[in-house]
Request: fold
Amino acid sequence: MLRAVGRFARKKPLGALGALIVVALLLMAAFAERIAPYGYDDPIRGARMRPPSAAHWLGTDNLSRDMWSRVVYGARVSVTVGFATIALATFLATVVGVSSGYFGGAYDLVVQRVVDAWLSFPYLVIILSVMAVLGPGLLNLVVALTILSAAVNSRVIRGATIAVAQSTYVEAARALGCGHARIITRHILPNVTATVIILATIGLGAVTLAESALSFLGFGVPPPFPSWGAMLSGSGRTYMFRAPWMAVWPGVAISLAVFGFNMLGDALRDVLDPRLRGATR
Reply:
């Protein structure tokens, strides 16, 4: 295991750096109470808009709250939304893409026309419309992002399924009398798993960025719970010139999270895609 990790770090240094960032985000989200010196909404007496110092690493905001603590707790929102959205979206995209690509015919035609119609609208319009109906909140945010991500990923999974379904071993399984359920579970799904993993990893960065954008517009997690996008939108934008650290550090956190997810996803794509492995050799 350690040898495989070391080989991955040597061949894909940016991917290893992205993996370290992702692990750091997971640790911050899981142990925020122990990492953050203050609560995310605890005011500190006499420390309003203090610049970064030894006492407050990232400074304080206009309500005398520690910025480092709020950034750490904000990682919990991003990780929760990102992984919950990707898990649900990947499941729905796999069900739609595999069934559509395997069965084909009229079923595939109807499903793909629905997906085409859904993707014809700008993604931000779809998300804002869903959030306007459901209202702000963590669960509603996950549902809105899941609907869009599942539609996009289902097209890629459908293409991979069609390529696998035309293989000789699938035809041999049909000739031996195997049912649809056995062919899908024993032959189709194992051969599209690499594609699913790559889509899920790369999609985490896009979902994190979308969550920050929605929080910036006021459709994310309601206050006082911190979200990096909301920290940029509210007091961070108002006090940009008096206390620039209030907007800089949430922006740095968003950039690092998206960078980590994208670099890890690109590295996994190079490792798991057999065509890219052959090109590398």
Observations:
- The chain has one domain: 75-280.
